[in-house]
Specification:
single chain, about 425 residues, alpha/beta, 7-stranded mixed sheet, about 15% strand
Length: about 425
């Protein structure tokens, strides 16, 4: 071992010991020379964060932040062994981690950075990213966004990849758990049926499913409620799967799926009900007014609109991109932006809707993400064969990040039901019992 290498090992030990005092985590770090260092007092070593070389420390010291962590995990500069990223994330207090940058001794960190700054090692460029910054489409109007490209990047990866962690119905949105021990399959079936009940669907009605995914809700509503469903998606992979599913179930007379932007649907056509299940996150803040105007245009007077979407917690200032936003839009959801539940309800009212029901499903999405994470981690070798190492790692980190976000309440998800406004009674029951029967 050279003197320079020895100095960098000692500096890394000092930095990790300092961070461990603040993190108090129950896992360990393994350096490139094989040394295992605890990240907290009495920390176990069964789950380890593996640092592949001194260039990783250099990157983290020069540019600390979530983007750098994602880049390093994508390239393999950082890895987690002995458990999934979510299992590792469960081993530390996220309140401590969020405020870590303010608590560390910056002079100590600067001194320990010197051995790494004197020598520059090559660092692999992060693969599997949509763009270099995570800013494409953010804050942009529809005409300035490449929505079909954004959707294809996320969804047209491989249907087989999604099948590794989704339920057999391929339902890619928060499930509804009637209890903590419910299976993912039962929770997704409960969610689909709950949507139909909230929309008060009955035979002979027409339903537009905006962002229909792999056709799960469309088929459920047609089979169990006898409605005619028109589903639209921008993903060719989803469309092909959905159409094959409709055919296999013999539902061609009730379900029509199209590769189409919902804003291009024939303006002469209106529907008894509309569902939007976690497609709204792809629309972009600058296009929310247009979205709700389209929903109002496509819905018959008195018709019901179901809106399920993840949202930010909200605050006093205007919504701006956060480090988490830029990471997710660069690697996972290009062009994605979250509003707040207050904005949702306000925009519905401004667009000619009466909001009838709002339900928080934050803890349901945490449970959903935990199920997806466990399934993908168990099938990680198959996932690597399908989509490569980088994307497999990134998705596991993404599931962990959002599971902890929903656990902490920094991100939430709501089901909102609204009615296209018209004079007179809504015609709905006075209580909510029918939604749960």
């Amino acid at each position: 071992m050279t003197d320079g290498a020895d100095h960098r090992i000692q500096a890394a030990r000092t930095v990790i010991a300092h961070l461990a005092g603040h993190l108090q985590a129950d896992l360990s770090v393994r350096l490139w020379d094989g040394q295992v260092l605890p990240l907290g007092p009495g920390a176990r070593s069964d789950i380890q964060i593996v640092i592949s070389g001194p260039a990783v420390i250099r990157r983290l010291l020069l540019k600390p932040g979530l983007m750098t962590l994602f880049e390093l995990f994508a390239t393999g500069g950082l890895a987690i062994e002995g458990g999934s990223p979510l299992e590792a994330a469960d081993r530390w207090d996220h309140g401590r981690a969020v405020h870590l940058a303010r608590r560390v001794d910056k002079w100590l960190m600067a001194r320990q950075a010197l051995p790494f700054l004197l020598r520059r090692d090559r660092v692999e460029r992060a693969p599997a990213a949509y763009d270099d910054t995570g800013r494409q489409g953010i804050g942009a109007a529809q005409a300035e966004r490449q929505d079909p490209d954004f959707i294809r990047f996320h969804y047209d990866v491989s249907n087989d990849f999604y099948a590794l962690f989704l339920d057999p119905g391929m339902t890619y949105s928060s499930a509804y758990f009637t209890g903590p021990d419910a299976t993912l399959e039962d929770a997704q079936a409960e969610k689909l049926d709950r949507i139909c009940r909230k929309l008060r669907l009955r035979p002979g009605q027409t339903l537009l499913d905006v962002g229909c995914g792999w056709g799960g809700l469309a088929c459920w509503a047609a089979r169990n409620y006898g409605v005619e469903v028109h589903g639209v998606t921008l993903s060719r992979a989803q469309l092909d799967f959905g159409r094959a599913r409709v055919s296999a179930l013999g539902l061609e007379h009730l379900v029509t799926l199209e590769l189409k932007d919902y804003r291009a649907i024939d303006p002469a056509v209106t529907y008894d009900a509309i569902s939007q299940v976690e497609m709204f996150e792809h629309v972009g803040l600058a296009n929310h007014d247009r979205h709700f105007a389209e929903m109002q245009r496509l819905l018959k007077p008195g018709g019901l609109y179901f809106h399920q979407a993840s949202v930010r917690r909200g605050g006093r200032g205007p919504i701006r991109p956060t480090p988490t936003t830029r990471v997710i839009t660069r690697f996972i959801f290009p062009g994605g932006e979250l509003d707040t539940i207050g904005m949702t309800v306000t925009n519905l009212g401004r667009s000619g809707f009466e909001t009838l029901d709002v339900e928080n499903m934050r803890e349901h999405f945490e449970l959903t993400l935990r199920a997806w994470s466990a399934r993908l981690y168990a099938a990680r070798d198959q996932a690597r064969d399908l989509v490569g190492d980088a994307r497999t790692r990134l998705w596991l980190i993404y599931f962990a990040l959002f599971a902890k976000g929903f656990e902490r309440g920094s991100v939430l998800v709501y089901q909102t039901v609204a009615r296209r406004r018209r004079p007179g009674a809504s015609g709905l029951p006075l209580d909510r019992r029918s939604l749960y029967s």
